[in-house]
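Homework help board

Subject: predicted structure for assignment chain

Our instructor gave us this sequence and asked us to write out the predicted structure in token form, then describe one feature. I got the tokens but I'm not sure how to describe them. Can anyone check?
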Amino acid sequence: MNLAYHAPLRYTVFCAVITLLLLAVACQNTADEPATTRTSAVVTGPNPTNTPVPTRTSAAVSVNPVEATAIPTSTPKATATATLDEQLELDPGALISLRMESQVGVLLDEFPEEMKERVTAELIAQSEEMWRQRAIRQVELTYNRLHFRGFAYAKVGVPDKGQLPYPPPEQWQIELDPAGPAVQTIDGHELVMINYTFRSTLLTDALSPGQAEAALAQVGGTWREPFVFPADPTMILQRTSNACLNEGGFPPNSYDSENVATFYDYTCQSDDGGVAGCHRTTLPSFSCQEALNFTVGTVDAVLEFEHLEWDEERAAEIRIGQVTSLEAPDLLVVGEDLENHRITYRYFPADSCALQEACVGAPGWRRLLQFDA
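My token output:
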């Protein structure tokens, strides 16, 4: 049975009158006070809002990538600058092109000297698809930096940076150098390398480009995001331990050899620990770039973004799925992601959160099914 309390009418009227009097006094006091302006502290560092918006690519912002560390927790909320109706009057959406020239290879150092000549010949004879898949593995290493970009720049004093996520892999194009692979020496390491060009197009709404990066607000605007990759993008954990893995914002022990692309951050330093730092479990002996130079060699590359003219036909070509809502987030369950799963073994101590949350039944070694969600 529901019970409700009803105050007498006279008491209710009395309370209402008192409330109105108090509001009137408060409004008068507010009107008598001079207006104040909030000021923010000036942040020294590159100012992204001053980036030119040319028709060709402009110079990269001078940021020391070694000091930047992406901290994956939550993305800073961008402030909308126009209503949906205003957005649709300008353009129904936006097209952002992505382009990167890089090179990728296979490390020869780990093969016995008497095998290198034969291994080199076998690698050079490999199919284009093998090299294309290796290039894709290198491109995937941009994930952490692009998705948690705001935190990486904020750490070096550059505000107002948002996500610049890469498009779905279905939209990726990898063009291999027709000259094919060849033997190179990088940072003292011998590899079979091939040049490639990555291209893709990101379909989004008209406002998001400017919210993520001021230089991309207008058609013709460009932005260049620097990266440092391992020349051979395989076995990163086995070769460099956790030197290149940014655990910030993730539960401890989240990384393994199979999900390195989610955590790869070339800016990680050896002493960057703690909950918000790169390393939550163990501090490595070297920074990421030092570890890569010691073990496999590095490749510098720049991922170029450009705000293209709106093209309805091009948008239809690259659109994945159906638009379900214009007035709210257009969300759909991506069931295919559940296909990425594997069995792993992990030790859980008695004080593990997994025990408190009933994810495992008892401390000790447990066999787990891991999957993307």
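Reply (TA_rk): Your tokens look well-formed. For the description, you could write something like this. The CA atoms of residues 210 and 217 lie 4 Å apart. That's the kind of observation they're looking for.
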